[in-house]
Design a protein that fits this description.
The protein contains 13 helices and eleven strands. The protein is of the alpha/beta class.
């Protein structure tokens, strides 16, 4: 069965272009659904890479597109009070009628991200522990039962409402490629959402996750394995490469050659893009989330049939 294909809305890119409206993003979400994409995703950052708030924007998307799944790629839960996060996510899951996937991450250790954590009053060095405890607390609150919690956020007989549309809350996927990240996926999460640099690495790390899941008494077949893919398609390979490099350097403020080594990226003709995407499908990816390095309407049209092509 071919993997599902998702689309990442360009929230950060539009801000970089000086475009702060939400209407154009909602129109792109509608176009993706009309073209047959399976899901629409939104990234997260407050000050490090300013963009629209993902949960607020996805609530608007949910009201405009009734079919596709919706998700965060990825949310930084450590920046948020988990009681408030649980409330927001439960409400969004109700608004979307159970179509929300909570993708999460711990954030890279770079200066602007550290500054973002400081601005939000969150110790950067404690972000993993805060994330793990906070997500456990979310799941407890999503039960609809009174919760007593002794930890960073003390709660006494707290009852959250509304309950999520899905019993127990939405699935939680987590990014990351380190050994500790892979172990966390296998033991605790519903899916894996990395940015592996090549299909071989993805396949090898997926095996490690599945092994951990079995050891923890979990069914590996129940875990989603997503992949985050960045591309720019053009019949002129040199032009495509230049556009992708400019996008990467503008987005991350780092040399493109360095970023190409640690992210899954492609530039070139559409036939090559299809083969490249198919490589991750063969490696075991169940969901492929596409981030276009510009020209979103054109790319949406061009790659709408990629699922059919890689499923042959």
């Amino acid at each position: 069965m071919p993997p599902k294909i998702g689309y990442l809305l360009p929230t950060r890119e539009q801000i970089m272009e000086g475009r702060h409206d939400a209407a154009s993003l909602l129109a792109l979400a509608e176009r993706a659904e009309a073209l047959g994409y399976d899901s629409v995703w939104v990234g997260d950052s407050v000050l490090a890479r300013p963009r629209h708030d993902p949960l607020t924007l996805l609530a608007a998307v949910a009201a405009r597109v009734p079919r596709v799944m919706l998700g965060t790629a990825v949310l930084l839960p450590a920046l948020r009070n988990p009681v408030l996060l649980a409330h927001q996510v439960a409400t969004l899951d109700q608004v979307s009628e159970g179509r929300f996937i909570l993708g999460v991450g711990i954030a890279r250790d770079v200066p602007n991200v550290r500054a973002e954590f400081a601005a939000c009053g969150v110790p950067f060095e404690r972000r993993v522990g805060r994330m793990m405890e906070g997500l456990r607390m979310c799941r407890a609150l999503w039960s609809g039962q009174p919760v007593d919690w002794d930890g960073r956020w003390p709660v006494r007989q707290g009852v959250l409402a509304p309950e999520p549309h899905r019993r127990g809350g939405p699935p939680i996927w987590i990014g990351g490629n380190t050994a500790a990240s892979l172990e966390r996926v296998g033991k605790w999460f519903d899916g894996w959402f990395p940015n592996a640099p090549d299909p071989a690495t993805f396949a090898s790390q997926l095996v490690d996750i599945q092994t951990t899941a079995r050891s923890a008494g979990r069914d590996p077949a129940q875990l989603s394995a997503a992949m985050y893919l960045t591309l720019f398609v053009d019949d002129n390979a040199a032009r495509a490469s230049a556009r992708l490099d400019a996008f990467l350097q503008g987005y991350y403020g780092a040399p493109a050659e360095v970023l190409r080594q640690r992210q899954a990226v492609y530039s070139g003709p559409v036939e090559g893009a299809t083969q490249w995407i198919a490589g991750y499908a063969k490696a075991g990816a169940t969901e492929l989330i596409l981030r276009f390095a510009g020209d979103h309407e054109r790319h949406l049209e061009m790659l709408a049939s990629v699922r059919t092509a890689i499923g042959r």
